Amino acid sequence: MCGIVGYIGNDYAVPILLSALERLEYRGYDSAGIAIIEGDKLVVEKKVGKIRELIRALWGKQYKSNIGIGHTRWATHGAPSEVNAHPHTDERGLFAVVHNGIVENYLELRKELEEKGHHFRSETDTEVIAHLIAEYYNGNLFDAVLKTVKRLKGAFAFAVITPLEKDKIIGVKKGSPLVVGLGKGENFLASDIPAILPYTRNTISLDDGEIAVLKRDSVEVYNFEGVPVSKEVFVVPWDILSAEKGGFKHFMLKEIFEQPKAIADTIGGFLSQDLTLPFDINRINRVITIACGTSYHAGLIGKYWLEKYTGIPNEVIYASEFRYADIPVDENTLILAISQSGETADTRFAALSAKEKGASVIGIVNVVGSSLDREADFTLYTHAGPEIGVAATKTFTAQLAILYLFAQLMARRRGLIDRDGFYRAVEKLNEVTRKVEKALELNGELENLASRYKKFKNFLYLGRWLNYPIALEGALKLKEISYIHAEGYPAGEMKHGPIALIDENMPVVILAPRDRVYEKIIANIEEVLSRKGRVITVGFEGDTVLKNKGEVFIGVPEVGEDFTPFVNVIPLQLLAYHIADQLGLDVDQPRNLAKTVTVE
Ligand code: AGP
Fold first, then answer.
1. 501-542 residue pLDDT tens
2. Is 289 in the pocket of ligand 1 (CB under 6 A)?
3. DSSP 3-state of 13
4. Of 41, 206, 222, 318, which is the most exposed, with the fewest CB atoms less than 10 Å away?
């Protein structure tokens, strides 16, 4: 999941490309590079590692160009290396390409081009794009790109420049995200909005199968047949500050502390949105939630609320499993596709495959204008603002808020609760934002706790009912930013196997709010203690029973049993954060990960 950028204007392109790439670094940080047109020449600079390596390499180089493209890489084909870094060019160095996605038929195309005498330098799939454009070029770059896109299979967004036509950048979208930023006498291309926010909030979101031709004073969009397409300009509601750290050491910590506002803004957004659904809710007899990672965990909790308040069966399936399984779907099936980025390929393509079978699709996204937002029949928005840290935090609790409200809305629409009942439920959720705020006061305590537990190599997280997914989420947070092995497990399942893992080297975090399964979880705590597990319990403040069980008790504010996930996830996010920070790891950009997973 790479990040690509482009700039054409009157300012020096290099500093603009580099700062835009820095804002996209959460998408991949294996290598970075730029290509500019300096005079009549194409100049390519690329470095392995983070953007700062590229910036260091460019120090002192006075490039005057005001047109260029750039790339930050998350390696899929070919290990992180300078030769595999983007931009890639044809062998005469006339066409430079930066690409995000996967060209699935690249080996076949490469073989065909090698038989025509082309010589390839890298192991990447991307390089075939530059060679194909060179192969088709006959004095018109747009025509060469049109011919090229017809040969490519897979998901791709790419940009190309050439000194043969110094007045334009051409951007192509099919499957991977690409937005155009509109300026005065300048225009921008980027994989994601934060990259262009410092320069403009006027954007055009390209749809799959579209090509944008950017010049200094115009942007034209065409489909893959070369037919012009008129596009709407979308003004981004976020400002540049929301994409800054705001005095916090890491974006992740800032975003953890933004959760009360994210939940409140999400409630406000839901109540002010026109909730007229484009399908008859009463014919829906089954809901399937599809998502990945943290969004999947939110979906698991949403299931409990939807089934509790509407009685409609709600399965929750990993999107990557859904698409290729023979799961019965028809016009009475509602798909809930949850994706904060709205660009996760597994979730998008799973939703599209269900739509083809007649299902209605509701997207739950945080990025307005994202692909899933435009592909779903209806979209519910989490208003968490841009999330830069790779580890999802504020978008998770905002997703929980939407899923709780959606369950209430469905109950209302099916006449199971009346108007007052609906607004009482909304009011209860509003109160939770204050409890989350209070739970954030545990930050110092978790920082101390982290220093005690950062040495352990394995963790187990246990929970029951609504808090089983929170155990999964706590384990995921620790895994993805501290690289410590951790497993989330239904507490009742533990005695059927994982209990064998427990000894004095295994911290076991157990979620034990006073809800309908409290007694059961207390029994599970006893099981772990009897095997010398190092028990850390999370329960309601002042719970004297838990205080006397295990090594550590973390007291969160008491809430109604529906809302325990909102407060229980906070100490787990903070524990993972502080452990990773104290281990000196790159919390916002953990190894091998990317914020948006745009390939299957
Ligand atoms: C969570 O911290 C991870 N970044 C990852 O698991 C993420 O939740 C997953 O990739 C889904 O992303 P999405 O919500 O943008 O679809």
1. 999 999 999 999 999 999 999 999 999 999 999 999 999 999
2. no
3. helix
4. 41
Residue 393 Cβ < 6 Å to ligand 1? no
Mean pLDDT on 279-283: 90
The sign of the CA dihedral 422, 427, 430, 432 is: negative
The predicted structure's pLDDT at residue 74: 84
Looking at residue 497, its pLDDT comes to: 95
- DSSP strand pairing (333-339 vs 360-365): parallel
- Residue 339 CB less than 6 A away from ligand 1: yes
**Tokens standing for residue 463:** 């929970």
* Alpha carbon distances (Å) from 494 to 133, 466, 468, 477, 525: 57, 17, 12, 21, 11
| Cα dihedral across residues 423, 428, 431, 432: positive or negative | negative
Whether the predicted pLDDT of 71 surpasses 90? yes
> What atom of ligand 1 comes closest to residue 593's alpha carbon?
4
Nearest protein Cα to ligand 1, atom 10: 293
**Is ligand 1 within 6 A of the CB of residue 390?**
yes
> pLDDT exceeding 70 applies to what percent of the chain?
99
Give me 262's structure tokens.
Answer: 């994210």
Residue 283 CB burial class (10 angstroms; 0-12, 13-18, ≥19): exposed
pLDDT (mean) for 334-363: 96
Is residue 347 within 6 Å of ligand 1 at its C-beta? yes
Q: Which atom of ligand 1 is nearest to the CA of 293?
A: 6
Nearest CA residue ID for atom 13, ligand 1: 339
Question: How many Å lie between the centroid of ligand 1 and the Cα of residue 593?
Answer: 10
Q: Give CA separation, 593 vs 4, 99, 238, 508, in Å.
A: 17, 18, 25, 26
DSSP β-bridge partners for residue 182: 187
Residue 61 annotated to the active site: no
pLDDT tens digit string along 224-263?
999 999 999 988 877 666 667 888 999 999 999 999 999 9
Is there an atom of ligand 1 within 6 Å of 340 CB? yes
Residue 455 annotated in active site: no
Residues 539-597 pLDDT 10s? 999 999 999 999 999 999 999 999 999 999 999 999 999 999 999 999 999 998 889 88
Element (H, E) at 365: strand 360-365
Residue of 390, 338, 383, 329 whose CA lies nearest to 360: 329
Ligand 1 atom nearest the C-alpha of 390 is: 4
pLDDT at position 241: 63
